[in-house]
Specification:
The complex is a heterotetramer of chains A (309), B (295), C (259) and D (444). Chain A is 76% helix and 1% strand. Chain A has 309 residues and is mainly α. Chain A has a single domain, classed as Orthogonal Bundle (ABC transporter involved in vitamin B12 uptake, BtuC), CATH 1.10.3470. In chain A, α11 crosses α12 and α12 crosses α14. The longest helix of chain A is centred in the C-terminal third of the chain and has 27 residues. Chain B has one domain. Helix content of chain B is 73%, strand content 3%. The chains are: A mainly alpha (309), B mainly alpha (295), C alpha/beta (259), D alpha/beta (444).
């Protein structure tokens, strides 16, 4: 059970201590914003298990977020199930989606994998719109109950789950399983030659990462108490990719920070100007050149500079 | 279905496929040579549409010759935009992690959408009249613009074929798509050819926008609607293959139009199902081949 | 010593065509425990293809491949590389094939964890298996990778990559190692080091080797047996000194090509 | 010059001057800022119990993307209303300040509304184009924000028909009365002339509901009609050729359409190019009466061989300018600001601001000091406010704004108007077509 406490864990713990205290000093709106930030961060961490650690770029991860959100909302609102059964329903849905799409798309890598996941995600988006008796179609599902009902309390529910899952991700990449992910990312042929079942490793990573997104979606639906199909659209998948790259796909910390920061960049861009898309676009483009290894990359460079390395 | 209806529906499908081909051939070309999935391709298509709209409606007035001038203007403007994007924005990223190129093209969607809104406003921009008359097939009509569009798409396909098989530049670009290193060793100026191919791909997107706008309606963000189906097209056909884009467009166009008649619930789903099935049996799409690894 | 105990690997009458090219033409060999067999020949002689046939990466069109396991002769023709690896046949690659995003230590850990079937565990840190760590230490020592232990694969020199590549295979306790040009691109002193390494591996674990090599000095230094290939066929297959005596071989192939 | 184009110009300038200029500009702006504020300040004698700080109103519409035209027009109209009100001393002396967000940031709609209310202190929010969004905000507004929220565009019957909301109002006419009137109009004008009815609409709730309401009502009125299977076009359809020829092949002579915005224009033009109106005799499009859609159709595309009917939530020529000067003034001022004839979102959002003003003022009269939220809600319930579309009555039972419903026949607008217009307007009073409160023809 031994593991080395490293800089990344220190940073994560510090960040989480900060995140535990800071809501006390924030307005209710900012707590809400931070809740969304935590969920985006969780999504980025989950996505990064597949992308940064296993080397597979999925362009359809919105399907897992919406599987979780819709599974829970359908259970709670449409089928009147109790929360536990609804969560179970959401997990079953996620698992089915992950296994089927994973089985079919993991025959491919690189761009074809990305395109296949995109296709499946769009198929699910089309299904959500079509199956309106179950999903509410484009009008979505509203009136999802929230517990605890106040944002301040719900923040801490999100916080606890996100904390556990982020630390779990940190942990997983340090276990043999996580080492296997990274080996498959670096050199699948050599990994195969060494006796690693590459397709199985990829599938595990895909499903695991799907569950992270699904849990984020499950927490998101009650936060907003209503959902519409835009969380299944391809642009949301793109945002998941983008925020991970912004933060830095090298480690868990980077992805998590990426999610948190993307929310703030997005919000601030809209506050600054009518042309928020242009502003957001320019900020993203600048990050490409100024922070090619993500925001965490900048931290590291600064740290190395301070230490005189 | 009587024969006349079948014929007009066939032309509907071919028209739709032609627009798809013009969009996706550029997308596929850029991917094949540069290994960049240009997410902003739809935005370039949008710019092309606005340029043609401006030239024909705001400046010259509708006529066949103004349409030709507008198409050329669309190609020229969007292709030069492509050169700027490639030289200024993409080139510095060639030796950086590949995901940065993706991020950049995504940022470009935002930037181009808002710039278009700044210049042309947010309102719908459309041709007041559709150029040309219609051919009658029984009680149905085929606008002559459909036929013109289909001919343009065919012409572009033949031109691209000629370009890649007969001209020295085309041959060099093909060489690059097989092996970057070998091409460099052979003394091919890969740097210049990257710019050329990006400009060519962008120009095709511009032409697609120009050809589409008289029958469609231009608005900022119209590119996002167009791009997803062209992803499906190039995956079905094989990424990097112009022939693949051609056949893929036909498959998507035909299946969409005839599914809308036979079983409309499946109209969109079918495209993605075809895509998944083809990839299961031919991992690189119908006409794709194992490509060189990314740089 | 009975035959089954003495031998570790056998190939009989292997053929492989690539289109019209007869890449491997009727090659048979037998490898004894602890033996070092070198294969030489000009480019395109079919050496690497032969290694690929033996390690299962390429399937032969004709002929069989066997390994000897606990006294049994086992037919492994057409089996997956993954299966053959677990039967104790490791191999290295001409262009070093390692994990660039992992440290040298993690590279070796990965290899051992996979071999010991611990790779799917997620209840412990991968660095917390004591016996694996001991093994890692040992391998780092054998391959003298101490200086680069904590560096990433992408930061290694060519020589270090070559060593790590072999170490990855060696860590899986193979009976047989198939090495594809282990000294290509190395400096003279690195070559000497590599020769010494191969010898010590044999000493340490009684590993048998098939080495595809260009450098005749290395070949003569380490080999027990020498095979000369040309256009897919075996030209000579004997002890090195005997082969070298065959003057026509030297002048025609070894002389021009290698030295 | 509009504020929109002001900031647009600013941006272009900024882009030209570059980063250095931006930095200098910030510095100069910082130094000169206090003086500018003093210039603008106009002394207002305070009414008793009225806070000094400005009243903040937030609005949210699609400002970007393919629906961006709705938001930019709504924003212009809201700014127009606010300029007018502020010029005349604000609401009880309180000036109005605006804040806005973009509905096109799809996943963040609720966050952005929360921001306006909880962070920026907006006391009212108006807006929403998407029906999904209008339903999505219900839990947030009713349970958490608890401020008056006036929907001005989203048309789903579910918003006001399924339950009485406490804080949410809709001032714009919604789809059900318009579709019911369409059916009545068909009976009135075309009984005996048409036999077969087809539908084309978007493949989502709005399309399904519209057809259910229209065909349901029409079937009761004219049971002999043949109703064909409705055609629904998927999201992002730009190419309607296959549907047009299907409709043609089906032999329909009445085509009902719930396509809207750019889609309505695209379909219409392709229908003309493919000669659809050789066989279809009557075309009814519930959302055709939108000036932005008509601009995209163009004067040259008005066919002679078919009766085209359009409706909407407001038509800029009704009530007639000579008898109802408020509409004339609105049209003139809106044209002065944007150069365009006002589309319906402009009128409804403009009216929403005046509804807020009137509700506050009447609640103030009763109370003698600034009213709280509950008092404003009570004042909004049963309020009648004059908008460009005529007097609007906010029904207290379901918070739905009621005013005249119209259908008009499409005519060339030239030479007077650069866009096609609706002529021969048939106007029904709301009592004739709006269902009883909290009854519905769609499933909740």
């Amino acid at each position: 059970m031994m593991f080395k406490i490293d800089n990344e864990l220190y940073s994560l713990i510090t960040l989480f201590i900060f995140l535990a205290v800071i809501p006390q000093f924030l307005s209710i709106y900012n707590v809400r914003l931070l809740s969304v930030g935590l969920l985006y961060g969780l999504a980025a961490v989950g996505f990064n298990l597949l992308y940064g650690y296993t080397g597979l770029l999925s362009f359809g991860h919105a399907m897992f977020w919406s599987a979780g959100a819709y599974g829970l909302a359908i259970g709670l609102v449409k089928l009147n199930l109790d929360p536990l059964m609804s969560i179970l329903l959401a997990f079953t849905l996620t698992f089915t989606v992950a296994i089927v799409t994973g089985y079919l798309s993991l025959r491919h890598t690189e761009i074809y994998f990305a395109m296949l996941t995109l296709a499946f995600a769009q198929l699910i988006y089309a299904l959500i719109i079509k199956l309106r008796d179950i999903t509410g179609g484009d009008e979505g599902i509203y009136g999802i109950p929230r517990f605890p009902s106040d944002i301040g309390g719900y923040y801490y529910l999100i916080y606890i789950i996100v904390f556990i899952l982020v630390i779990l991700a940190w942990w997983i990449v340090r276990t043999p399983l996580g080492l296997g992910f990274q080996a498959v990312r670096d050199n699948p042929y050599r990994a195969e030659a060494l006796g690693l079942d590459v397709r199985r490793v990829r599938l595990i990573s895909f499903v695991l990462s799907g569950f992270y997104l699904s849990i984020a979606g499950m927490l998101y639906a009650p936060l907003n108490r209503a959902i519409t199909p835009d969380i299944a659209f391809w642009t949301f998948s793109a945002i998941i990719v983008i925020m991970t790259i912004i933060g830095g796909s090298k480690n868990v910390l980077g992805a998590f920070i990426g999610g948190l920061i993307f929310i703030y960049i997005n919000t601030q861009a809209m506050n600054l100007t009518e042309f928020w898309q242009l502003t957001l676009g320019i900020i993203l483009a600048l990050l490409v050149y100024l922070a090619p290894y993500g925001i965490v990359g900048i931290f590291e460079r600064v740290l190395r500079y301070v230490r005189g390395g | 279905m009587d024969i006349n209806l079948f014929i007009v529906q066939l032309f509907n499908a071919l028209f739709f496929a032609s627009i798809l081909f013009l969009i996706s051939s550029g997308l596929s070309l850029i991917y094949g040579i540069m290994k960049i999935l240009n997410l902003a391709h739809g935005a370039l298509y949008m710019v092309g549409a606005y340029i043609t709209f401006t030239v024909v409606i705001l400046w010259l007035g509708l006529s066949w010759y103004s349409m030709v001038i507008a198409y050329i203007a669309s190609i020229a403007v969007v292709a030069s935009l492509g050169i700027y994007i490639e030289r200024i924005l993409l080139k510095p990223l060639y030796n950086k992690p590949q995901d940065l190129q993706l991020l950049l093209t995504f940022a470009l969607i935002f930037i181009l959408d808002d710039i278009v809104k700044m210049i042309w406003g947010a309102q719908y921009r459309a041709f007041p009249t559709i150029p040309g008359w219609s051919l009658s097939v029984g009680e149905y009509q085929i606008p002559v613009y459909f036929i013109a569009t289909i001919l343009i798409a065919l012409g572009v396909a033949l031109l691209l074929h000629w370009f890649f098989t007969k001209t020295i530049y085309g041959k060099m670009i093909r060489a690059i798509s097989y092996s970057l290193e070998t091409s460099a060793i052979l003394g091919i100026n890969t740097d210049k050819l990257f710019a050329l191919s990006f400009a060519l791909g962008a120009g095709l997107a511009g032409l697609a926008g120009g050809v589409a706008v008289p029958l469609y309606t231009a608005s900022p963000g119209m590119g996002g609607d167009a791009i997803v189906l062209s992803f499906a097209v190039i995956v079905i056909g094989g990424m990097g293959s112009i022939l693949g884009a051609f056949v893929g467009s036909l498959i998507v166009g035909l299946s969409r139009v005839f599914m809308a008649i036979i079983y409309p619930v499946f109209e969109i789903a079918l495209i993605y199902i075809i895509m998944a099935i083809i990839l299961m049996f031919r991992p690189t799409g119908l006409f794709g081949r194992e490509m060189r690894e990314r740089r | 010593m009975s035959e089954a105990v003495k031998y570790v690997l056998e190939a009989s009458e292997l053929h492989k065509w690539f289109g019209n090219v007869h890449a491997v033409n009727n090659v048979s060999l037998k490898l004894s425990r602890g033996e070092i067999l070198s294969i030489v020949g000009p480019n395109g002689a079919g050496k690497t293809t032969l290694l690929n046939l033996l390690s299962g990466i390429v399937k032969p069109d004709k002929g069989r491949v066997y390994v000897y396991l606990n006294g049994d002769r086992k037919d492994i023709t057409g089996r997956s590389p993954y299966y053959i690896t677990f039967l104790g046949v490791g191999r290295s690659f001409q262009i070093p094939n390692i994990f660039d995003g992992l440290t040298v230590r993690d590279n070796i850990r990965l290899s051992i964890l996979t071999y010991r079937r611990l790779i799917n565990r997620f209840n412990r840190a991968y660095s917390s298996f004591n016996d694996v760590e001991e093994e890692v230490e040992k391998i780092i020592e054998i391959f003298s990778l101490e200086d680069s232990e904590y560096r990433y694969g992408r930061e290694l020199s060519h020589g270090e990559r070559k060593k790590l590549d072999i170490a990855l295979s060696f860590a899986q306790q193979p009976n047989i190692l198939l090495l594809d040009e282990p000294t290509s691109g190395l400096t003279y002193s690195e070559k000497l080091e590599m020769v010494e390494l191969i010898r010590s591996l044999r000493r340490e674990r009684e590993v048998s080797f098939i080495v595809v090599e260009h450098d005749l000095d290395v070949v003569r230094e380490v080999s027990d047996m020498l095979m000369v290939m040309h256009e897919g066929s075996v030209l000579a297959y004997d002890e090195p000194d005997e082969v070298v005596k065959m003057s026509e071989v030297i002048s025609a192939y070894l002389g021009g090509e290698v030295i | 010059m509009t504020q929109v184009s002001d900031s647009r110009r600013e941006w272009v300038k900024l882009a030209g001057v570059g980063v250095a200029g931006l930095a200098v500009g910030y510095g100069v702006g910082f130094l000169t800022a206090p003086e500018r504020v003093r210039e603008v300040e106009t002394p207002v004698e305070g009414l008793p119990g009225v806070p000094d700080e400005p009243l903040k109103i937030g609005y949210i519409y699609f400002m970007t993307g393919t629906l961006g035209t709705y938001g930019t027009n709504a924003a212009a109209a809201i700014e127009l209303a606010v300029e007018e009100i502020n010029r005349n001393g604000g609401i009880l002396g309180r000036t109005i300040e605006l804040t806005s967000k973009d509905e096109a940031d799809r996943e963040r709609v609720l966050d952005n509304i929360s921001k306006m209310v909880q962070d920026e202190g907006a006391e009212f929010v108006v807006g929403l184009d998407s029906s999904g969004d209008a339903l999505k905000v219900i839990p947030l507004v009713e349970d958490e924000l608890q401020i008056p929220f006036i929907v001005t565009h989203a048309a789903t019957p579910k918003l006001t028909e399924c339950a009485k909301r406490r804080f949410i109002f809709r001032i714009s006419m919604y789809e059900e009365p318009i579709d019911i009137m369409a059916a009545q109009l068909v009976k009135e004008l075309y009984e005996g002339d048409v036999t077969t009815v087809a539908n084309i609409g978007p493949d989502y709730a709005y399309g399904y509901d519209s057809w259910a309401i229209f065909s349901g009502t029409l079937q009761d009125l004219m049971p002999d009609l043949e109703f064909l299977d409705p055609i629904y076009t998927p999201l992002f359809t730009t190419d309607y050729g296959t549907y047009i020829d299907q409709i043609k092949a089906s032999g329909a002579d009445l085509l009902f359409s719930s396509l809207w915005g750019g889609d309505a224009a695209t379909f219409f033009k392709q229908a003309i190019a493919k000669g659809l109106f050789d066989s279809v005799k009557v075309y009814m499009n519930a959302m055709l009466g939108a000036t932005d859609t008509l601009e995209a159709i163009g004067n040259d595309n008005v066919p002679d061989n078919v009766d085209v009917w359009g409706s909407g939530r407001y038509w800029f020529l009704y009530p007639p300018h000579d008898v109802y000067p408020l509409n004339r003034l609105f049209v003139e001022n809106f044209r002065g600001k944007t150069g365009a004839y006002p589309p319906y979102v402009a009128a409804t959002s403009y009216t929403a601001i005046y509804a807020i003003k009137k509700a506050i003022e009447s609640a103030y009269v009763m109370k003698g000091s600034w009213p709280d939220v509950d008092e404003i809600i009570s004042a909004l319930e049963g309020l009648t406010v004059s908008g460009p579309m005529g007097p609007v009555y906010i029904r207290p039972e379901d918070h739905q704004g009621l005013y005249d419903v119209f259908w008009g026949r499409l005519r060339r607008g030239s030479p007077t108007y650069p866009i096609p217009i609706l002529d021969e307007l048939v106007v029904y009073p709301p009592g004739k077509v709006v269902p009883e409160p909290l009854t519905t023809m769609v499933s909740c």
